[in-house]
Amino acid sequence: MNLQPSREVTQLLLDWCDGDRAALSQLMPLVYDELHEQAERFMRRERRDHTLQPTALVHETFLHLIDQSRIQWQNRAQFFGVAAQLMRRVVLKYARRQHADKRWGNAIRVPLNDGLASIDNSVADLFALDEVLTRLAELDPRQGQIMELRYFGGLTVEEVASCLELSTATVKRETRIARAWLQREMTRRQPMEARAVG
Q1: Which of 24, 99, 101, 143 has CA atoms 20 to 30 A from the CA of 6?
Q2: In degrees, to the nearest 5, what angle opens at C-alpha 89 toward C-alphas 29 and 192?
Q3: Which DSSP state fits 74?
Q4: Domain containing 138: what range?
Q5: What's the CA gap between 65 and 68, in Å, rounded?
């Protein structure tokens, strides 16, 4: 990720929060490329015939970001954390719409890769993954944010550490703990899903 100076992005966020519309116009070019890279990394994990493209994901995320008038922007890390959450929501909304259109057809499947944990190279349902990540964030907000940035934001350990102002050692440790918890929760869900289908 090509990190823009944190102070510049943070100042523009604060100005935008104070009602300066010009700040938003200056902010978007600074963060667009990073958001697009995140969207590309995320969409690479999707199935090949997926019709949602990274550019459309970024644009939809932008529309939601502009509507975030109640957020008191504080810094760059918070902005990218909110953007990752919004990307996740956009993808889930798209998946639900596609799933409804297919009427119990093949739901969008997401492999648990290095962003999370691989469970014997199996795939996990995006909806189940969302529920498990939401539960993790309730239990441990920092681990939830780290995994959201790692998986939905597509950030590396170093990038997450920079965004959240943590040491790489802390991010690695929290990722290891969260990954083990997520693997356990997703493994528990597999028998339940198999029973529901069978």
Answers
A1: 143
A2: 150
A3: -
A4: 6-197
A5: 5
For 150-181, write each residue's pLDDT tens digit: 877 767 888 888 878 899 999 999 999 999 99
0.70 exceeded by the pTM? no
pLDDT, tens digit, 9 for 90 and up, residues 45-71: 666 656 778 888 888 888 888 777 677
Let me know if residue 89 belongs to a domain: yes
DSSP, residue by residue, 27-93:
HHHHHHHHHHHHHHHHHHTS-TT----HHHHHHHHHHHHHT-TT-----HHHHHHHHHHHHHHHHHH
Query: Cα angle at 15 between 13 and 20, to 5 degrees?
Result: 120
- Using CA atoms of 76, 81, 83, 86 in order, give the dihedral in degrees to the nearest 10: -160
CA distance 47 to 106: 11
Q: What percent of the chain has pLDDT over 70?
A: 73
In a domain, 185, yes or no: yes
